Amino acid sequence: MIKIKFRSALVDTRAVRGADCDSDHMLVVGKLRVKLKSKRLTTIKTIKSNIEKLEETDVRNAYAIHVQNRFKLLEEEEITSDWETIKSVLTEAAMESLGLCINECRRNNWFDEECRSAAERRKRCRIKWIEDRANIDKREDLRVSRNLATSKNRRKKREKLGEKLKKIERMEKREINFRELVGGEMDSSQE
Predict the structure, then answer these.
(1) CA nearest 28: which of 10, 18, 11, 14?
(2) pTM of the full predicted structure?
(3) Domain locations in the chain?
(4) Per-residue pLDDT of the chain (191 residues; tens, 9 = 90+)
(5) How far is it, in rounded angstroms, from Cα 105 to Cα 109?
(6) CA 113, 119, 121, 124 torsion: positive or negative?
């Protein structure tokens, strides 16, 4: 279960019966005492803009105007357009016209109360089955609730993905091009 090289580092192992990993296997937790070389990492905090606001024409036009004005300032200063300047122009324009994305940018926005209740039911059935593994009815209840929870999650995920694809298709029909948004022409050597 553990490599010989780390055998002396293993301090403690325990089987955790209550951990819900949607399986009939028990989770094994081990404590290791390992000395690792520290590596210093510099973290860069990414700031997300609320791009949902770009669907509104007023906000989209304001964003385009901000970007055009910033690029005009850069042309006047005769700075070569490298990635850092373009990045700073776009992020500053997005902050001014779009604002920050706070709670709307959740990754699993398809996981709603219906999915949560199905997961809770599956968890309750699993606990009942663990208490009495010999009972076939409890095993069957667990199987049914597991299938129900999985199918609800898949359905919700597909619905959300379908909504996103329809939204992309609507945006594609508008044929908003980045060049039009910026207001400048890019020559073929930069593409």
Answers:
(1) 14
(2) 0.45
(3) 51-104, 113-165
(4) 677 877 788 888 888 877 777 777 778 888 888 777 777 777 777 777 777 777 788 888 888 888 888 777 766 555 555 677 777 877 888 777 777 665 555 667 788 899 999 999 999 999 999 888 899 999 999 999 999 999 999 999 999 888 888 877 777 766 555 444 444 444 444 44
(5) 8
(6) negative
